Amino acid sequence: MYTLTMTLDSAARTPMYEQLYRALASDIRAGKLAAGERLPSKRALCAHLGVSIATVETAYGLLLAEGYVRSRPRSGFFVSDFVTLDVPAQTKKPPEPAHPAQPVPDAAAAGPDFSTASVDVSQFPYASWARLYREAVCGHPELLQRGERQGDHALRAALCAFLSEYRGVVCTPEQIVVGAGLEYLFGVLLELLPPEAVCAAEDPGYAGFAHAVSAAGRPLRLLPLDAGGLSVRALEASDAAVAFITPSHQFPMGLTMPADRRSRLLRWASEAPGRFLVEDDYDSEFRYLSRPLSALQGMDGAETVVYLGTFSRSLAPAIRAAYMVLPPPLLARYHALPGHGMSTLSRYEQHVLARFLNEGFYARYLRRVGNVYRRRREALIAALEGIDGVTVSGSGGGIHLLLHNPRFSEEELLARAAAEGITLRGLSSYCAVQPPQPSTLVVGYGGVRDADIPDAAARLKRAWE
Amino acid sequence: MYTLTMTLDSAARTPMYEQLYRALASDIRAGKLAAGERLPSKRALCAHLGVSIATVETAYGLLLAEGYVRSRPRSGFFVSDFVTLDVPAQTKKPPEPAHPAQPVPDAAAAGPDFSTASVDVSQFPYASWARLYREAVCGHPELLQRGERQGDHALRAALCAFLSEYRGVVCTPEQIVVGAGLEYLFGVLLELLPPEAVCAAEDPGYAGFAHAVSAAGRPLRLLPLDAGGLSVRALEASDAAVAFITPSHQFPMGLTMPADRRSRLLRWASEAPGRFLVEDDYDSEFRYLSRPLSALQGMDGAETVVYLGTFSRSLAPAIRAAYMVLPPPLLARYHALPGHGMSTLSRYEQHVLARFLNEGFYARYLRRVGNVYRRRREALIAALEGIDGVTVSGSGGGIHLLLHNPRFSEEELLARAAAEGITLRGLSSYCAVQPPQPSTLVVGYGGVRDADIPDAAARLKRAWE
Predict the structure, then answer these.
(1) Whole-angstrom Cα distance, residue A317 to residue A154?
(2) Of A35, A375, B120, B246, which is least surrounded by CB within 10 A?
(3) Torsion of CA B390, B395, B400, B406, to 10 degrees
(4) Which strand ranges, in their side-by-side order, compose the sheet holding B276-280?
(5) Number of A–B residue contacts, CB under 8 Å
(6) At A244, which helix (H) or strand (E)?
(7) In chain A, whose CA is at the least distance from the CA of B256?
(8) Which of A404, A408, A416, A423 is nearest to A463 (CA)?
């Protein structure tokens, strides 16, 4: 008689009938029970295995339902004509991952955190945030149902009012698309552009847009910066139709784009149909030397600029809300787009954020955390500039700055800092070609603790003097 | 003297200095203040406008900071050499949207809801869900920080245990990628496949995958079904390397794919390198005629199948959590992928869902809502089959069924139902070519109220008899 490959375990969490079913299905797939072969009678099998008749009946019923076997009245169950697989399934273990999932860094163990991705959430208003969430979950059952494709109107209206007041953005809620993360929105945006449209990005620059363009298999040009930001001469000499820029606080150089450069870029966009500027209003929330500059989007009557923003740096990395303001030609294409049935952003998060904006929590929070960053920036600059040879630039806004020390190469600066337990990142790691400045590091201070600054500076002093 | 185009409003919410700055910047951009022209002296302008000297100083300071003007010591402020734009910005209104945002349908006003997208949330455990959210927000400040790229390990471990126990999926948490919405995951998946890889989808079928393939500018083949699901003959005759299938409950035909078809598809995938099956385990949570069938993924040792699932039908449309289980070759490519720095899914939702799975809320909820659907399905089938000429198929699982009535064409069935106030959808709207069955409608019952079924059936009887 046919013998089961698998042993059954009456103490296991999986029911016996399920175990028996899986064992038989596996053996059928592996060809151990051949096509046309008769299964053991139910009584014989239950006696053989010491299980109840109900267990065998249920397992056979499942095999029948799934087409593994056919039933012939008064004859029993026969294995179906079945394409066997070379590799029996149940004997294989799930594969080991090629890389382990990257661990979340432990700030305490890893030394001071100078990553440009880190932000300070010590001032985050947990109690208010939790109350708004609780009210959303308990008081708004409709938030479990399908929401609007572009994001719920309440959030889009709140964003529109906020962007108009604080950033000079000219738009209506109907132009806003809300999604989870800028990377997702880049994907949507690229769907709105013709496949042959060449996209340009800043070099050095934020890698997210360039990755999205490459991942979509679209043509990409990396263009150099000059003192005003993206080089207009390089842009005009290129075949690009779309240019991604960070005018408020260029990443990573920290430049703020002056008005005439903004105007020249808008002029470029207006000179041929189908040209667009993608303005990532990155780090516009924090300015230390002057008031935040208005968005470029508000300068052109909103015809050629796609405006993008997120809350992941101004509020917290895990707040996934990102938004884009589409100019009318792209909005029309968005409406014609199939798919994208519902915003990727949680409707709870949408609801809570709308109240957070409308009820003034967000503006108050920006002031509070802005003051924390302002003090930390001053302390950090003073400490760094106390090291012989070190100067600082690009620190007028945002939560990172550039550190220059011409006494060593970039590589030496990094190696000597690492030997003192300080992990930093060089400017060249953000550059496709030569970095525009030698011996330059990019230092984020969103995640560093105020108390750690003196010791970190002392260690860098030892490393570099 | 130069006269401001804009009038200032001391009662407005925008500060006076900001209004003045905007007015001057707009006039400079429009060329009303020409390059090289001297701005009015601060004292002259404040006298002229009746504002304080501080207001004018702040506005001039902003213009200087942004590069609109240059300062010459003891001479005043001069307009920069500036590229003027043909269209002055501030006079333009934001554009009207091409289409209004689609309204969320009002179920009460629109008649019974037979949409296949609707689900019943009347049994949703609000109190438990809200408690888990509150505990996440108040008790886990770390959830504001950056999470793992593939989704937090706790959720991936909970999914892994659930999928293994309930769906026979063979995987480790390291193979799971969590994101917001299937559409987003389709985008990630396509990045893992070579650009030339031809993707096949079922016709009729779920449009989301086909849209994602087309949006990415990749080659797509729509292949016919037969009684067992996706036609193996058509697949073998095509040049496809990737096939998207819905074996548990084919959408919209409602078929369950028998074991030998599954095996034939796995054989196809194993016959050439780079072939993959994308198994959307759509609607596997609800079965009425037999126990849920195991996932196809578990049959092949997880080598060639990408397994996909969501909570948006089993739990609620606004729960955005979706997941995919990658086979080892694609997992290795995922690890090598740039970008996608953090899961698009809210970490709160990840945390709450992990507890929802681990603490048994989800399994209990599935039983409860499954019973609601089971009773509704029986009542609906009985009511529909009471109409002369009507038969029902594809109703063994999920929350939709096919309605057949050969007495009229599909078009006539829809028009006559609409005249009685019942909105339905025809099978041909899901088909790229001819529908496989004539006179067939696709009827969802996730969103219909039990109490509305008798009246809806009476109206359809009037419409069709």
Answers:
(1) 23
(2) A375
(3) -20
(4) B176-180, B321-325, B305-310, B276-280, B242-245, B199-203, B220-226, B229-230
(5) 347
(6) strand A242-245
(7) A66
(8) A416
Distance of alpha carbon B283 from alpha carbon A249, whole angstroms: 47
Q: CB–CB of B291 and A62 under 8 A?
A: yes
Cα gap B169→B222, rounded to integer Å: 27
Amino acid found at B359: E
Query: Tokens 């340009």 correspond to what residue?
Result: A200
Three-class SS state of A187: helix
Residues with Cβ within 8 Å of B360's Cβ and at least 6 positions away in sequence, in order, are none
Per domain, the residue ranges of chain B are: 16-79, 126-362, 363-464
A43 min Cα distance to partner chain B (Å): 23
Spell out the CATH class of B363-464: alpha beta
Predicted confidence at residue A238, as pLDDT, reads 97
Helix or strand run (H / E) with residue A155: helix A153-167
Q: How far apart are CA A182 and CA A131, in angstroms?
A: 27
Count of beta carbons in the 10 Å neighbourhood of residue A117 = 16
Shortest Cα–Cα distance, A184 to chain B (Å): 7
A363 touches chain B (CB under 8 A): no
Which residue of A134, A183, A195 is in closest CB contact with B130? A134
Q: Give the pLDDT confidence score for residue A292 in this predicted structure.
A: 63
Rounded CA gap, B199 and B179, in Å? Answer: 22
Residue A439 to chain B, least CA–CA distance (Å): 26
Distance, C-alpha A389 to centroid of its chain: 37
Q: What is the torsional sign of CA A58, A62, A68, A72? A: positive
Least CB-CB distance to B267: which of A85, A172, A349? Answer: A85
Beta bridge partners of B48: none
* CB-based contact, A153 to chain B, within 8 Å: yes
B8 vs B298, residue with greater confidence: B298
Pick the CATH number of B16-79 from 3.90.1640.10, 3.40.50.10860, 1.10.10.10, 3.30.70.3270: 1.10.10.10
CA atoms within 13 A on the CB side of B206: 24
Chain B interface includes A138 (CB < 8 A): yes
Tokens in use for A44?
């014989």
Q: Which residue type sits at B401? A: L
Kindly list the strands in the beta sheet with A391-393, ordered across the sheet, starting from the edge strand earlier in the chain.
Answer: A391-393, A400-404, A440-444, A425-426
Residue of B nearest to A185 (CA): B184
Q: What percent of chain A has pLDDT over 70?
A: 91
Confidence of residue B210 (pLDDT cuts 50, 70, 90): very high
pLDDT of B317 > 70? The answer is: yes
- B335 to chain A: which residues are within 8 Å by CB? 97-99
Q: Into which CATH architecture does domain A126-362 fall?
A: 3-Layer(aba) Sandwich (3.40)
In tens, the pLDDT along A15-63 reads: 788 888 888 888 887 778 888 888 888 888 888 888 888 888 888 887 8
Phi, psi (degrees; rounded to nearest 5) at B140: -135, 70
C-beta separation of B154 from B351 below 8 A: yes
Q: Which of A233-266 are b and which e, b meaning 16 or more Cβ less than 10 Å from the residue's Cβ? A: ebbeeeebbbbbbbbbbbbbbbbbbbbbbbbbbb
Inter-chain touch B85–A270, beta carbons under 8 Å: yes
Task: For residue range A294-312, list pLDDT tens digits in order.
Answer: 899 988 766 899 999 999 8
Nearest partner of B442 among B118, B117, B116, judged by Cα: B116
Which residue reads 């057949």 in tokens?
Answer: B404
By the 8 A CB rule, do A154 and A353 touch? no
Q: Residue written as tokens 């990172």?
A: A400
Of B124, B153, B170, the CB nearest to A94: B170
Lowest-confidence segment of B123-132, B181-190, B420-429 by average pLDDT:
B123-132
Give the Å distances, CA to CA, from A217 to A192, B156, B245, B303: 15, 30, 25, 26
Q: Return the SS3 of B319.
A: coil
